[in-house]
Amino acid sequence: MARSWAELPTNRVIGLTGASPQALALSLEPLPDGAPAVLTYAATAAPTASAMVESVLSELETAAVALYPAWLPDAEGIAPGGAGVGAVRALALEMASGTHHFGPFVADLAQTSLRGEAPGPTRFPPEVRAAGLARVLAAAFGRPRVALLIDVPEGLSARDEDVLLAGGEWLAHRAGMGVWLTGARLASVDRLETVMVRLPAEVAAIARDVPETSVRPTVTAHASEGPARAGSAPAAYRGAFLPPSGMREPDLRRPAVRYPAVAGRPHPASAAEQALERALAVCDWAAGRAWNQTHQSHPLALSIRLDLLWRQERCVVEIDGPEHREAVRFEADRRRDVQLQLDGYAVLRFTNAQIASDLETVVRQLERFVVSRRAGTFEGSRHV
Predict the structure, then answer these.
(1) How many whole angstroms separate alpha carbon 272 and alpha carbon 230?
(2) Which strands sit side by side in the sheet containing 346-351, from one edge to the other?
(3) Where does the DUF559 domain start and stop, copy by copy (predicted)?
């Protein structure tokens, strides 16, 4: 019987069936109610189970540092200089005193996070790091548990598969986290329980209608086409998301660990979101913006996550990386844009490349649209 995300076990390793990694990722955005905090790890071949575990723990520490202060909210606004280190260590120890967190571990992690340092050598053994990171990452998303969704690559040898499974079993046992395998099947392993995932109806329909091998549609409108004709929205407002011909995405590599956005903040792993927020923070007209909010058309509809929202102005801004070229996500983007427009929102899409190469133009276009929306003068500003 198929299970929902909230019903999957978080104390052992299982293999997920019934959906592609792309469909699974889509169904986790935003995190479903009752589900653990789910982070995705792109597995690679490791020589030993301990090496695989060390790789995962290093990536999870990097994620925890990036997500600070979401897991230590009282530290918001504390500066790294002066008495800042002592203050965040005290807050971490105070948090640990009333929870299952291990005080010395979270105090050290808070100090590293405050200073913006890359995690380095640690005084704690792997068992303490694993359990501590599981608790911290769950707390960052306000969830009681955490799960690691491991994307298994094709072409692993029988030994590689055994190493991957042994490392996953260690993490599940020592960290108390769910370890869920997706992607390529472990052909040589016979001790792995498999579970079918029950996708939301909307995601299942997209996965059914759009095979993973299908070619993405061609988008002909680009922001580089020149000024929009009078009275019409610029190309960026018309749904264009591909970079102009010859422009390369700033970074096509995906991080080894991916994690959801925290409501109210630009995603820590998105250089484009971070850059845009820094630019908007000094603009008076940009007041009222909210990062990574959820929207639900009606109580039975699937919730969707919005990168950036001006709720009063009914304006949604989406920032697209190269993963939005995948067939399943491309189709999902088109469907959600239509639904948002039916709900009275304008949807503006920009690429990472646009923000990296011409941030000033992006901000100017956003200002034009948001200010005009407030005045009720922009074409199409009538609410549905």
Answers:
(1) 29
(2) 289-295, 304-310, 315-320, 346-351
(3) 306-368
Token pair, residue 240, equals 């264009």
Q: Burial of 254 by CB count in 10 Å (0-12 exposed, 13-18 middle, 19+ buried)? A: middle
Distance from chain centroid for Cα 102: 27
- Helix ranges (H only) for the chain are 21-27, 49-67, 84-97, 103-115, 126-140, 158-175, 201-209, 271-280, 327-342, 352-357, 359-375
Model confidence band, residue 265 (pLDDT cutoffs 50, 70, 90): very high
pTM of the model: 0.84
pLDDT tier, 244 (very low <50, low <70, confident <90, very high otherwise): very low
Distance in angstroms (rounded) separating the CA atoms of residues 292 and 67: 14
Domains of the chain (ranges, CATH numbers): 5-205 (no CATH), 210-375 (3.40.960.10)
Q: Is 60 exposed, middle or buried (0-12, 13-18, 19+ CB in 10 A)?
A: buried
Q: Is residue 101 within 8 Å of 31, Cβ to Cβ?
A: no
Residues 204-223 pLDDT 10s? 999 888 865 544 333 323 33
pLDDT digit string, tens, across residues 306-349: 999 999 999 999 999 888 888 889 999 999 999 999 999 999 99
Q: What whole-number distance in Å separates Cα of residue 165 and Cα of residue 150? A: 10
13 three-state secondary structure: strand
Residue 212: predicted pLDDT: 59
- DSSP β-ladder status, 37-42 and 315-320: unpaired
Q: What radius of gyration, in Å, describes the C-alpha atoms of the chain? A: 22
* Residue 274 half-sphere exposure toward CB, CA atoms < 13 A: 7
DSSP line for 102-114? -HHHHHHHHHHHH
* Cα→Cα distances 19→24, 34, 228, 272, Å: 6, 20, 41, 30
Least confident segment among 151-160, 224-233, 254-263, 340-349: 224-233
Name every residue whose Cβ is closer than 8 Å to that of residue 238 and which is 6 or more positions away in sequence: 221
